[in-house]
Amino acid sequence: MINKGLSRLGTFFLYLISLLPFWLLYLLADALFVVLYHLIGYRRKVTQENLRNSFPEKSDGERADIERKYYRYLADLMLEIIKMTSISKKQLQRRMVCTNPQWADEHKAAGKSITAVTGHYCNWEWVSLEFSTHTRLFVVYKTLADEVMDNYFLRMRTRFGAVGVPMPQTLKTCLAHKDEFTVSAFAGDQTPPMATANYFTVFLNQPTAVFLGIEKIAKRVDSAVIFCDMRRIKRGYYEYTMVSLIEDAKNTAEYEITEAHTKYLEAMIRREPQYWLWSHKRWKLKPKT
Prior knowledge:
Layout: H1 2-18, H2 22-39, H3 44-54, H4 60-83, H5 89-95, E1 96-98, H6 103-109, E2 114-118, H7 124-131, E3 137-141, H8 147-157, E4 163-166, H9 170-176, E5 183-187, E6 200-203, E7 206-209, H10 213-221, E8 224-234, E9 237-246, H11 256-271
Parallel strand pairs: 1-9, 2-5, 2-8, 3-4, 3-5
Antiparallel strand pairs: 6-7, 8-9
Helix pairs in contact: 1-4, 1-8, 2-4, 3-4, 9-10
């Protein structure tokens, strides 16, 4: 009961923060950057190791520059995600703009549902929320151990009509709606559970375990596979483009879909690396020798 009470108090505090105007949120983000980067060094060793292994061709100075830019952006991202609790639809659509909004209608007319893939890059939470303002969207997510916080994030992500789907229920949900037009959104850089880490590919210069569920589901429902390419325009403003990777998932070779979305993600990260989640322990699983 005490833990639940503290969690409820925490979510109320986050809601109050979300009501602040953006200029004040970014002042808080500036202070948060100092705390994360300078004072506590939040996961800096993890970040430095990930950057060193991913970009051996870069100098120490170049990697240090990416690291600093990453932590400055991470502070912004944390406050932007909190803002999702109360941001209006109009404000969100002004700040997260799709460059090719016809993509959904074109696939709907062709009778093709969509498996949409992106990574933990730029503001992946905002793009899913903006999706749901005009397109029926299944948001696949990992449940949190804290029930109060799990419900908080689920409400936040589904404010504009998205349907939250816990990861273990993804295939069942997609198959139940395979005769309808749906868009299912996945993060392609999730680390698979150790028991199912059966496929490794080279991603950012390292053997990397890849989640195969995206390919499995796309083939079962015979969807098109689309990658959400994101760019940060300036502080608090983004644009995204839906890029077709596979139009006929059912007839692809084994691992073709997995390799396609993994390679596209890597290219996006290399373009502007400071916007990926470098402090995550992405390479904790190693291939068996």
